[in-house]
Amino acid sequence: MKRLILLFLIFPALVLADASTPPLTIKKIETGWGSEGIYISTNEGIKVEGCSSAVLRINSNHVMLDKILSIALSAYHTKSKVQFRVSGCTGDQMNLIAIAILE
């Protein structure tokens, strides 16, 4: 049991479950300085538990990167509400895994 607790203290991302955000509007979509991924900021600045930044990150190796980016750009230009699915954190940023445009 002590080893399990120690693992959670050393690797806190292990305890983070997938979470969905409330409806949000996209304020900014940008690239990083390298090829690490795409970053999305929202007007609401909502963070999921465990992540200290309100920025969402789509890793460059994500299999749906192009699809998520396409939907995000569509939502940005139409000012539509979106819901993001987040799987833990990458550093302090939320690890974005899916997106949905809401009515």
List keywords for this structure.
103 residues; alpha+beta; OB fold (Dihydrolipoamide Acetyltransferase, E2P); six-stranded mixed sheet; 36% strand; globular
Set down the secondary structure blueprint.
Layout: H1 2-10, E1 18-20, E2 26-31, E3 37-42, E4 56-59, H2 65-78, E5 82-90, E6 93-101
Parallel strand pairs: 4-6
Antiparallel strand pairs: 1-5, 2-3, 3-4, 5-6
What is the fold-level CATH name, i.e. the topology?
Answer: OB fold (Dihydrolipoamide Acetyltransferase, E2P)
Fraction of residues in β-strands:
35-45%
Structural class: alpha+beta
Helix content class: 10-25%
Shape: globular
Poorly predicted parts: 1-15
Per CATH, which architecture? Beta Barrel
| Strand elements, count | 6
Give the spatial strand order of the biggest sheet: 1-5-6-4-3-2
- How many distinct helices? 2
